[in-house]
Structures are given as structure tokens and as C-alpha cells.
Design a protein that fits this description.
The structure holds 2 protein chains of 2 kinds.
Chain A (H helix, E strand, L loop, with lengths): L2 H7 L2 H9 L2 E2 L2 E3 L1 H4 L1 H10 L6 E5 L8 E7 L2 E7 L5 E5 L14 E3 L3 E2 L6 E2 L5 E3 L24 E5 L2 E5 L7 H5 L4 H7 L7 E3 L4 E5 L3 H7 L6 H4 L38 E3 L5 E4 L10 H14 L1 H8 L3 E6 L3 E4 L4 E9 L2 E11 L4 H14 L7 H14 L7 E3 L8 E2 L6 E3 L5 H14 L2 H5 L1
Antiparallel strand pairs in A: 1-2, 2-21, 3-12, 4-5, 4-7, 5-6, 8-9, 9-10, 11-12, 13-20, 14-20, 15-16, 15-23, 16-17, 17-18, 18-19, 19-20, 22-23
Helix pairs in contact in A: 9-10
Chain B lengths: L15 H16 L3 H6 L1 E10 L12 E6 H12 L11 E14 L4 E14 L3 E16 L2 E11 L14
């Protein structure tokens, strides 16, 4: 009997027991990356229950603007109504279920289904139905269940739009917890305290499970080795920023030992983590940056500006699939397609009010660091595909995740638990969240 | 032999087959993994660009699949020579093909512009074969050392698609 067959014959209690047995304190079973039935349950229980990043409200600045994306496997539309409110709708016609909007983004007053011309207002309610008299007498355009369904929970934090497919669960505030400070860290760097997400998106894919990518976001241990080919003989990686020092990351010492320095890695409840900064933006130079720093100093004072520009985190990851990449200044969304196929999308972030040149530098650098042709990301993609291939091995069922176990201490300043740079605590923390969503969800909302 | 009309003097006239021979030799550098020779065909201020958006006006305010100046090309080539570039273990084998040369323009001062279509077949043992197609837009400059690439843009038909890892230039 295959795993899928076993699962289909199992009772709900057996399924839960089966899932729970896949994750232990310091190891996980390979089935969490290989088993199609586990993947189906992840779509239902993780992506169907968790707060998910839809995008940023700057992607729909004007009334009628819309942006289409996918949450889990559900096509959704983020759109701004006349009253300024941001709505998140299931991109599905209330009539026969066709995907209503088929363009990636745009602006319109109403959404119109191509099949029978049912039209919808920006909030998803029905605007008109052709030949309505043929429907039962109680057919009412105002009946919300006839329209395009809204996601039951939509909340914003610093312009980041989160939505959830189920009405039950923790508030966004509780879900984000102290991990939300990462969003403040980047937004506060804008002279006006606002971010803009624009400049298109990178899209890469790999033939591997989506969790390989998110675990990589809690893994600084790999960097000096996996990314060795982008390190020059002096032990530094290519420069990440313009200016004299250019904030090159020191990857390797002369003796071949890791040269990266970071404050460590934090983890938070609900599966989130953050990796410590590896270099400081304060070292950045160039005319545009100097002008920007002067602006910040005028608004915030010298000390606060220095603090704002001192990188605290390389990135912050919000379980299950949103990476706020602070150093590269980008949003990364990990999109599970099937158990062994994953798409990753990267969106540049602009600090509103900062010189255009700085955004140009961000865009240019992202081409090198996070595109499909990246000098570093491609190493990770290769690793993800090799894990997927290696896990086919019947030689061993378990993957051990043991680095720096039980070496975390509470961080009183920034919250969360802080461990050493090369810990695997963030990965263990993701797996604990996995169990929370997959098995223990009912207890969480009780 | 097709002579191309130009606005300049006779000395500036370009022959299509000369241009095609240059492009064939350029692409052969990539297929033979002679990356340094390929980069040497670019003018010092030259660049290579593969936009993401179908109508992308600029590489500065929108992401690109590639946007390399000569310095970046050299970074990429150095990495391709690194013994532990994992994404090229095993290495790609590629064939670049071009056709449909058209839209020649010469400004009479040694700058020649044209378009042609391309196909790239890439094979890696663990990846199978990937195929890409699009249009190249070239700007070449005639120098004492020969033709040099001022700008090469690769407009892919599927530029907005999701991509596997790309190691070799289109």
C-alpha cells in the first residue's frame, strides 16, 4: 500500500497521529517532503488556516486597481475600492466557478466574468446578472453568497496586506508577534515611513518541496559553503551596495573557515524567524545615499538615523511562506504548486521618499542576488533539487536537524528567542509550527 | 550578398553576411564555454540585457532576467570557472541558433543596429533539456579592433514566465 492509499483509508484520528509522528524535536520524516497526501493536507491545513501575505497596498494605489496572486492554490484578487479599502477576493465566479480576472493586474470599476457576463463590484458583490428573470424568484444581487467570495480576514500592517481563508484563528497582531518589528525596521528607513512595492517580480521555480526554500531562510550555516562560487579570492562576496565599502559580505577566512559575522538568529511563535544582519547599511556610500541619510537625519536626528540604518536583520521569515528580505530590500513569496514543484516570486521594495537612484540600485542588485540567473540564489535552487532527489533514497527515512539545539536565550530587546548564527533552531521552529497547523489547530482556537 | 542601405558613406556600409558571421562567432563563444572571449566582444561600456516585462522600457526601475555590464559579466564568468559552482555540476551544454536578421540601421558613424530571432537549447544531465526563444536587438560599434557589442538585448517570448536556474546567457 502506498502512503497515499494508507492516508485515504485512515480515520481522521489516524491521519492526525500519522502526521504527528512525522515531526520529532530534532528530526523529521522524509514523507513531509515527498508524500502527495501530506502536501494536500498542507494546502488545506496550513495555507487554508494561516495568515498569508497577499501583497502590499502600494501595489493597488488607486481606486479600481487590482493585483492577482495565489494563496496556497487559491487564485485571489487584491483590489482597492472607491472608499480606499483594500479587498481580497477569491478569483472565482459565483455562478459556474470560472476564474474571473485573467490579467495579472490592472484597473477597472467592475470585474466581469467572460463566461456569462456576471459582473462584480470591487468588494466582490454582484453588480449585474444577464437574463436574471430566469433564475429562481429569491435570486438577489445583494445575496453575498452569490458573489465572488471575500476572504474572511484581511488586515494590514505597515501596508503589508495579510489575509486568511478561515474566520477562526489568532489575530494578525498575535500571529506576527515580535517578528513584526522586522517590517518596522524596513518601513522606518523610508523618510516618510512608507514602502512601495513596484518594479515587477522575479519568478524562479525548482523541482522540490516548498519547505526546502523556507528552511533555507532559517539556515545561515549553508552560506559560506553553498555560495562559495560567488566568493572572490579575498574571501568576500560581490558587493551588495554601491559606494566605497559596498557592504561586501565576508564569506570565508583565509583558512577556509566561515567568515560571516552575524548577531545570530531569532525565532518566534507561529513559525517565524529572523537572521541577523551580516553587514551594515550604515557603511553604504555614494551621492544618492548621502543625500538620503541627510534627509533621515533632518527628520529623525543623527542618533536615531544611525540606529535606523544599522542593519539588525538580514531577513525575517513569516511562516508559512513570506520572506521579508531586508538586506536585498525585497518580498519573497514561496508558492507551493505540487509536492515536488515550487515557484518563488521576488518583488523589489522602494523606500518611499528616498532617491530614485537607491531604488535603481536595489533593482539592479536583485537581478544578481534573487533572480533565476542569480549568482547566489541558483546555488540554493540546486540544493533544493538535490535534497528532493536525495530524499528519494530508501536508505534512511529521517532528516536530523540538530545544530545548536537548546542553545537559545530570550532576547529582551527585540523579542523572540536568540540563538547562534549557524543554529538550526529556526528550522525546528518551522516544524513545530507545521505540527501546530497540521495537527493541533483545534486546540489553538479553542 | 546583400548590401544594406545606410545614411553614411560607402565605408560604413554593412553586409548582412558579415553581421551574421559576427553573431554566429559570438554565440559560438557561449556554446564552446569560451566566456572570456565572449565578454571581450563587448565594448567597455557595453551591456547585456534580458528584460522580464514584455514592454519593459528600462532595466533600472524594473527587474530583469539579466542586466550585466562588463564588470558583472566578468563576475559571472569567474563564477562559471569556479570549481564548486554547484549549479553547473554537471555543466550545461548549449546550442544557440539565430535567424531572421532584419531592421538594419547604420548611423554613418560606425554604429550598426539590427534585430534577429534566436533559439537556445540547454541540456544538463540532471535537468533535461530546456528551450528558450526570442528576439535579439543588437547595437554594434565598428572599432579598429573589429566590431564590438555596445548593447545586446534578449527579448524572450516567455520573459514573464517562471524560470529554472539560468547560468548561461541567452
Amino acid at each position: 500500500m502506498t502512503d497515499v492509499e494508507k492516508m485515504r483509508r485512515a480515520s481522521p484520528a489516524d491521519i492526525d497521529a500519522d502526521l504527528r509522528a512525522l515531526v520529532e524535536a530534532d528530526r523529521v520524516h522524509r514523507r513531509i517532503y515527498l508524500d502527495e497526501s501530506v502536501f494536500e493536507l498542507e494546502i488545506e491545513r496550513i495555507f487554508g488556516r494561516a495568515w498569508l501575505l497577499v501583497g502590499h497596498e502600494s501595489q493597488v494605489p488607486a481606486a479600481g486597481d487590482f493585483f492577482c496572486t495565489t494563496l496556497g492554490r487559491s487564485p485571489v484578487i487584491m483590489a482597492r475600492a472607491e472608499d480606499g479599502r483594500v479587498h481580497v477576493l477569491h478569483n472565482r465566479c459565483g455562478h459556474r466557478g470560472a476564474k474571473v480576472v485573467n490579467t495579472a493586474r490592472g484597473n477597472n470599476k467592475r470585474f466581469r466574468c467572460m463566461y456569462h457576463s456576471w459582473t462584480y463590484n470591487i468588494d466582490g458583490s454582484l453588480a449585474s446578472v444577464p437574463l436574471q428573470d430566469g433564475f429562481p424568484a429569491d435570486f438577489d444581487l445583494k445575496d453575498r453568497s452569490r458573489g465572488m467570495a471575500s476572504l474572511p480576514c484581511v488586515e494590514l500592517y505597515r501596508g503589508f496586506v495579510f489575509a486568511r481563508m478561515t474566520a477562526q484563528g489568532p489575530s494578525l497582531q498575535e500571529h506576527l508577534g515580535d517578528a513584526r518589528f522586522a517590517m518596522d525596521e524596513i518601513a522606518d528607513r523610508s523618510p516618510v515611513g512608507e514602502l512601495e512595492v513596484l518594479g515587477g517580480m522575479h519568478r524562479y521555480y525548482f523541482r522540490g518541496n516548498w519547505k526546502h526554500q523556507i528552511e533555507n531562510l532559517a539556515d545561515q550555516y549553508h552560506a559560506p559553503f553553498s555560495h562559495e562560487s560567488s566568493v572572490t579570492p579575498d574571501g568576500y562576496q560581490f558587493s551588495r551596495r554601491p559606494g566605497e565599502k559596498g557592504t561586501r559580505i565576508k564569506m570565508l577566512n583565509k583558512d577556509g573557515s566561515p567568515g560571516t559575522e552575524s548577531k545570530g538568529q531569532w525565532w518566534f511563535p507561529w513559525g517565524h524567524n529572523a537572521c541577523g544582519a551580516q553587514s551594515t547599511d550604515g557603511d553604504q556610500g555614494g551621492e544618492a545615499f548621502d543625500a538620503y541619510r541627510s534627509d533621515l537625519e533632518r527628520i529623525n536626528g543623527v542618533d536615531r538615523t544611525r540606529d535606523l540604518l544599522t542593519h539588525k536583520r538580514h531577513l525575517a521569515f513569516f511562516f508559512p511562506n513570506f520572506d521579508l528580505h531586508i538586506l536585498a530590500q525585497a518580498i519573497r513569496i514561496v508558492r507551493p504548486i505540487s509536492v515536488d514543484l515550487t515557484e518563488v516570486q521576488i518583488f523589489p521594495i522602494r523606500l518611499k521618499g528616498a532617491p530614485e537612484q537607491m531604488f535603481n540600485d536595489t533593482v539592479r542588485l536583485l537581478n544578481l542576488t534573487h533572480s533565476c540567473s542569480s549568482l547566489a540564489q541558483t546555488d540554493d535552487v540546486e540544493a533544493f533539487e538535490r535534497i528532493q532527489a536525495g530524499l528519494q533514497s530508501q536508505g534512511e527515512d529521517w532528516i536530523r536537524i540538530q545544530r545548536a539545539i537548546d542553545r537559545d536565550v530570550p532576547d529582551k530587546e527585540r523579542g523572540g528567542m536568540l540563538g547562534p548564527q549557524f543554529t538550526e533552531a529556526g528550522i525546528r521552529n518551522q516544524h513545530r509550527a507545521w505540527v501546530k497547523y497540521m495537527v493541533d489547530w483545534k486546540e489553538q482556537v479553542a | 550578398m546583400t548590401n544594406v542601405k545606410t545614411q553614411g558613406k560607402d565605408a560604413d556600409r554593412v553586409r548582412v553576411d558579415d553581421i551574421a558571421a559576427f553573431v554566429h562567432a559570438e554565440l559560438d563563444c557561449l556554446d564552446q564555454r569560451r566566456f572570456e572571449d565572449w565578454i571581450a566582444l563587448f565594448a567597455e561600456d557595453g551591456f547585456y540585457w534580458a528584460p522580464v516585462a514584455a514592454d519593459q522600457a528600462s532595466p533600472l526601475d524594473h527587474v530583469s532576467l539579466f542586466y550585466d555590464d562588463v564588470r558583472t559579466m566578468k563576475l559571472r564568468a569567474n563564477r562559471l570557472r569556479h570549481p564548486r559552482i554547484h549549479v553547473q555540476d554537471p555543466p550545461s551544454r548549449t546550442v544557440h541558433m539565430v535567424s531572421n536578421f532584419r531592421d538594419f540601421e547604420a548611423d554613418g558613424n560606425g554604429l550598426i543596429k539590427f534585430r534577429c530571432n534566436f533559439a537556445l537549447f540547454e541540456f544538463r544531465l540532471t535537468q533535461g533539456q530546456h528551450m528558450y526563444a526570442g528576439t535579439y536587438v543588437y547595437s554594434l560599434r565598428r572599432t579598429e579592433a573589429g566590431l564590438r557589442i555596445v548593447a545586446k538585448t534578449a527579448l524572450l517570448v516567455n520573459s514573464e514566465d517562471m524560470f529554472p536556474s539560468l547560468s548561461i546567457w541567452f
